[in-house]
């Protein structure tokens, strides 16, 4: 950021009119637009240079590769500037925050909404890694967004009993209710919380042992655990000894 408070920003947008409009709004708001990318390959090549900018405003769907595909292809090998997604598709917000997006703006961008985003960036928009591990808020290491009706809630991991994958969607169970997350597999959930203790009690269920309220043995060397009122989970024969060990049994 320049001493006068101007932000150095870039934008990735394949639609010329949308790119021109956002560029004008950014300049009027005191930003220097130092790069404009119009497709996925150009965005990937530019990110490989690890550019010195305060923010990258990017669309999701572009020729050659979507922004999510670009991020996935880079695989955490380069450092990203703070990301602000600008799109007409509200359904991708969870995936955006999963890659540590600073904000998620819907087209057409409202000037007042953009002003709030820029204020946030000036107050401390920091570089993120592709996996969102660097510069994460220290006070909220285990919070994550989940879909709730037409909006989102932010769940604390300590209130989650288990994660369940159904048809490539990971659901978080918290206080007897399930919430849809942006993760698609249990491996993604485990990677998101490297310091957490989890155990796979079935191929599609990842349990947080601290959430277990009761355990009883069932036929065949298996077990059944209670994680909430009327909510019991079956533990596979293979996982039962490990779970008992974690529970101090």
CATH class of the largest domain: Alpha Beta
Number of strands: 17
CATH fold topology of the largest domain: Rossmann fold
Beta-sheet strand percentage? 25-35%
Shape: elongated
Distance between the termini: 56 Å
Strand order of the largest sheet: 2-1-3-5-6
Counting DSSP H or I runs of 4 or more residues, the number of helices is: 7
Low-confidence stretches: 126-140
**Biggest sheet statistics:** 5 strands, parallel
CATH homologous superfamily classification of the largest domain:
Response regulator
Share of helical residues: 25-40%
Compressed to H and E, one letter per element, the order equals EHEHEHEEHEHEEEEEEHEEEEEH
Question: Mind telling me which CATH architecture of the largest domain this is?
Answer: 3-Layer(aba) Sandwich
Return the domain count: 2
Rg from C-alpha positions? Answer: 21 Å
Name a few traits of the molecule:
OB fold (Dihydrolipoamide Acetyltransferase, E2P); alpha/beta; single chain; 26% helix; five-stranded parallel beta sheet; elongated
Overview of the structural elements:
- The protein has 249 residues and is an alpha/beta fold.
- It has 2 domains: 7-129, 3-Layer(aba) Sandwich (Rossmann fold), CATH 3.40.50; 143-246, Beta Barrel (OB fold (Dihydrolipoamide Acetyltransferase, E2P)).
- The protein is built from 7 helices and 17 strands.
- The strands form 5 sheets. The protein has a 5-stranded parallel beta sheet. Strands 12-11-10-14-13 form a 5-stranded antiparallel beta sheet. The chain has a 3-stranded antiparallel beta sheet with strand order 15-16-17, with no helix packed on it.
- Strand 10 and strand 11 form a beta hairpin.
- The longest helix has 14 residues, at 111-124.
- The chain is elongated, with a radius of gyration of 21 Å.
- Residues 126-140 have low confidence and may be disordered.
């Amino acid at each position: 950021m320049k001493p006068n408070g101007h932000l150095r920003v870039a934008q990735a947008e394949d639609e010329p009119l949308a790119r021109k409009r956002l560029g004008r709004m950014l300049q009027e708001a005191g930003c220097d637009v130092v790069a404009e990318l119009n497709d996925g390959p150009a965005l990937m090549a530019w990110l490989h240079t690890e550019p010195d900018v305060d923010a990258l405003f990017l669309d999701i769907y572009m020729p050659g590769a979507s922004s999510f595909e670009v991020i996935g292809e880079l695989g955490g090998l380069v450092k990203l500037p703070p990301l602000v997604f600008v799109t007409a598709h509200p359904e991708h917000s969870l995936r955006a925050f999963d890659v540590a997006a600073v904000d998620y703006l819907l087209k057409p961008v409202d000037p007042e909404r953009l002003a709030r985003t820029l204020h946030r960036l000036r107050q401390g928009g920091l570089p993120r890694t592709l996996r969102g591990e660097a510069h994460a808020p220290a006070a909220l290491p285990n919070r994550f967004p989940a879909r709730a009706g037409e909006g989102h809630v932010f769940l604390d991991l300590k209130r989650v009993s288990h994660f369940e994958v159904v048809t490539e969607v990971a659901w978080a169970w918290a206080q007897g209710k399930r919430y849809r997350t942006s993760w698609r597999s249990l491996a993604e959930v485990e990677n998101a919380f490297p310091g957490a203790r989890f155990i796979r009690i079935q191929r599609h269920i990842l349990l947080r042992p601290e959430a277990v309220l009761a355990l009883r043995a069932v036929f065949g060397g298996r077990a059944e655990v209670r994680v909430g009122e009327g909510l019991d989970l079956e533990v596979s024969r293979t996982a039962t000894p490990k779970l008992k060990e974690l529970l101090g049994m």
